[in-house]
Amino acid sequence: MGLQRQNQPPPRWVRLVQIYAVKLVLEVFGSTGAVWGFSEVVGLRTSETAGLWRTIAMSVGYVFFVRFLLQIKDSVQGNDEDEDMLSMKELRTSETSPLVG
């Protein structure tokens, strides 16, 4: 009697946190870091231009953060494509059961 909620999907807010925590790290922080790192790798960022590239990287991060917030807004309002795709995937997995040997 340890598990109370076997085979039930987690509450909607838990799924939102799981989905959007990953999106924040990969899409928002990743885009900022990609611009920062790329500018160094190709030799555009030097000690003299670090301030400029910091501004550019933060601007890209800001754009992706606004996009991130719009995705959350759509998800809360029920207009989220990711949520629809996730629901379809969960439905397919629940319909198929693994073979027991």
Radius of gyration: 20 Å
What is the helix content?
over 70%
Output mean pLDDT: 83
The share of residues in extended strands comes to: under 5%
User: Count of DSSP helices?
Assistant: 3
Structural category: mainly alpha
Major sheet attributes: none
Task: Please give a structural write-up.
With 101 residues, this protein is mainly α. It has 3 helices and no strands. It has helices at 12-41, 50-77, 81-95. Helix 1 runs antiparallel to helix 2. The chain is elongated. The two termini are 26 Å apart. The mean pLDDT is 83.
Pick out its properties.
single chain; 101 residues; mainly alpha; 72% helix; 0% strand
Question: What's a concise summary of this model?
Answer:
With 101 residues, the chain is mostly helical.
How are the SSEs ordered, and which strands pair?
Layout: H1 12-41, H2 50-77, H3 81-95
